[in-house]
Amino acid sequence: MPLGTIALLLAASFSLGALPLTRWAVRVFSRRDLRALGTGNVGVSAAFLHGGKLAGIAAVLAEIARGIVPVLAGRFCFPDAPAIAIVLLIPLVAGRYAIARGGGVTNAVWGLLVFSPPVAVSSGIWGLLVWGLAQRWWGEGDRARLFASRCGCLCTPIWVWVWGQSMPEFLAATGLALLLTAINFNQGDDMALSKSEQLFSLDDSLDAAICGDKAAKLSQLKRAGFNVPAGFILPSKEEGRRKKEEGRRKKEEGRRDEENADRLLISNSVIQNLKSQIPNRMIVRSSAAGEDGDISSAAGQYQTIGPVFTEAELLDGINRCRQSYWTSEAVAYRRQRQLPDTQMAVLIQPYIDSQFAGVMFSRNPLDGGSQVIIEALPGGAEAVVGGQCTPVHLEIDFSQPELLENKLTELQSNSIIAQSILAELVKQAQAIEAFFHGIPQDIEWSWDGEKVWILQSRPITNLQPFWTRTIAAEVIPGAIRPLTWSINRPLTCGVWGEIFKVVLGDRAIGLNFNETATLLGSHAYFNATLLGEIFRMMGLPEQGLEFLLRGQKMGKPPLGKILPNLPGLWRLVQRERALNAEFKGDRSSIFLPALQSLDKEEGRRKKEEGRGSSEEEILMPNAQCPMPDYQYLTELLERAEQIQEWLKPITYYNILGPIGLAIRKAIFRVNDDWLANDSAPEIASVRALQHLAQKLRQAAFSQPDETISVADLAQTFAETPALQAEFEKWLDTYGYLSEVGTDIAVPTWREQPEIYQKLLINMAQKAETNLVEKREIGLNFSQNWRLDKCQERTLVKNQISEIYARLLAHLRWTFLEIEVCGLAMEVFQESGDIFYLEFGEIQEWIRSGASVSFKDTIRERRDRLVADRDRPIPPVVYGNLLPNSQTRAIDSATSGTNILQGIPASIGRVEGFVKICRTASTDLGENAIAVVPYTDAGWAPLLLGATAIIAEVGGQLSHGAIIAREYKIPAVMNISEATTRLRNGQKVRVDGYLGTVELLE
Of 333, 715, 767, 882, which is the most exposed, with the fewest CB atoms less than 10 Å away? Predict the structure, then answer.
């Protein structure tokens, strides 16, 4: 037997075992170093545990190959001495343990399987039998598993003898078994660590349920590039749960020691590994489930220990930190917040030697205002949060970025913090808030003389829920009176709740859809916190909250989160697909009969007063209350209640219809210009008025190019009964429209005919009436097919809008009749008072039959509405309190830029002079650029006379944008505070393609 060859094979086996194949596999697939994780064992189980499935599979394949190669080499070189093949596994396992820091079990098992399958299978079966018996004796746990593993190793020589009857093979196998067993006793156990002492790093993607919210958030920030100190997390243990169960049993026996339930044994290898990773001073911090969470902070409830120096101090610090989970104060806090008793993870980080440190809020924690609040003291941040010292308190307003540097200069003179550091803190606060999708943050920070370190970040829990004007500003814009809101809120919340229940199914249980919307500062807001939670439950991307809070675009939802929601989404798709047919059925059976009955009722009442009317007219409420008693009022109340019952299904169609159309347009890539919107009430009404203006012009002008005064046109109109009759017919047809179609407190066109008669005369005076006939757009076959998928829904949407607006008009007129009676009974003082009551208050008054007076209530609410109209309304409110801000006007002399950026709505570029239009009845004048707070169907006649449109709110699908595109009027939407930032007569340039408004003076 050539000894040189044997020596060479032994050396080669040792070298092969020393290769860090598993460490390389984990490094490639997860970019992690197993030597710095867990017990430091670089084995297959550690690869799966710390590197993930792909890294684990790669490690298994590498170790299988490593175990097979020496056996095949021994068989090939020494076919007559099979024991050599087993002998070669010994230096392989030794090199694997001594150099590559692995256990070598996988190598030995697969090597033996190639050497003798019966031996390997017999050893495996024996190990499983021993494991089963050990579990019956010791119960499930690591002890039984490790005992079975060692027995499996030690029995291998026996099975080699049984199947081979060879003494050399038996001795070789004995040597291998003893080596494997010795390694098993000395090496750390990552399988046990996965249940009790697994170490995670802040460089990992952490699960908050395992590592706590504090560590999970810090991990997100660190991986995003923020200055977060390195850290390792010792998660809560399975053993801890077992000991807690034992503690509960002891409590029943009167011997409970709950604090010791978390005082768990931690292996020396874990402590040594932590100390090797952080050789200098350390700090031990809690990271419990629910701590620093979205709804609870647990601030100051759990103990932080530091600095710690030695391994003994580290072990003691971990145990003390865990014990703090069971203090009476911490338990009482969880009970009060209705948080379950779970587990405590521990975060170990380097101790930052701070020159000064503190906390900062990315927004004012009192009202969510636009101020970064910084509090700091020399030394560590614990002095600030501990409340024992009065820190430096700074408030930095970031609402005017151009003034921020001057503000920082002023603050620096009275602060211990340099201006450059203040600027960095403000930058970090805003960046972290943006990183967490616009959620205001409570941030703990430290300055070590070189850089700002982020030690902690959590939501400012009292600034919840978040309320957003996104969408709400278009659904129901402007200041809203109580009666309007008391009717619109249950309708809107109810419909959205129904839609979300379709998608979420049983998961919707526990969600309060009545909190979908609220009124702040007399303006409507949607609950971004609730909607964000619903978005996450539906599998929509994290940017969903940014869409609500900042108006940013929604990203594509991840497929893995969408799949579980497919059944619910399919149910919603089925509803959307059936909408056209269902609406047509309800239109015939519910809505048209309802409108006919309302018209007939009004006609009957007017005939009783001696005023005839046709059944097709849109009728006005009675000018006088025929019999101001409670019987008549009860009839009117029942009518109002019935109209609201009819409004419930039409509101459902009015919400789902436009959503379905928007989705269809996106799927089939249909441009807005392709769709025929002639049937839209705002378009049809304007075209009808334009035709009437042409007739008036023809009646007044003998020559087409002749000019004539407004007075002459008014006289012609007054002397022409046919034109007056056509105008009355126009009012009868479209008189249900108003400036704000969703606000019943706003007068309808039918109630103010003099305004639209004046508009008719102004249209007739212009030589060019902007009358646009139906356009023919040349589309190919594919485009026509895609258009067909959307055009019918467009027509249905317009029919829905008409019915919805007509029912709201009848509801308004019913309340006006109630108000007339209330004025006669001296319940109200002046016209419009009824809209400052809530519907429930009206019901209680009429049904009680009592003599009441709402004078003080109405005066208080009227004053509040007037004040709310003049104050700036923020697009987002944090908590339930509007920020305490003052109205400010921004002009071109003080603004940091002369270009205002909005949303492009209709292409074209125009220079002109601003006309602020707060209502649709504003006299626009000639060649003016209309600046409006919002747009609705009722604004159509006014906008038609503008050379360009600037709106404070709205998007490309808003009413103003549709009208602007239809009549080729440049328009820009979503220019915040445009009616206060701009002034009458100011010259501006509007670019509807870029979405900009440039201030020219």
Answer: 767
